[in-house]
Amino acid sequence: MTDNTINPALRESATFGRDVIAEIQRAAETGIYDIRGWGAKRKVPNFDDLLFLGASMSRYPLEGYREKCDTEVVLGTRYAKKPMVIDTP
Question: How many whole angstroms from its chain centre is CA 17?
């Protein structure tokens, strides 16, 4: 593809759009590749994806006014050599 138009016969895929497929075909035909990243294949997780449900993390108290409320959190109990203990989150 010598001109800058995108072939309308190209089919999009779930991963790449027509412009990306045209760029891949151009690089395959000419042998000249642009060195650049195409980005992550999946959405990168961030702290907005965390959800803490405090009510379902422990059993329900038998007697609410007599039982002590504990807010200790232990991070890394399964795989960490030294789990992190947080007294008050």
Answer: 21
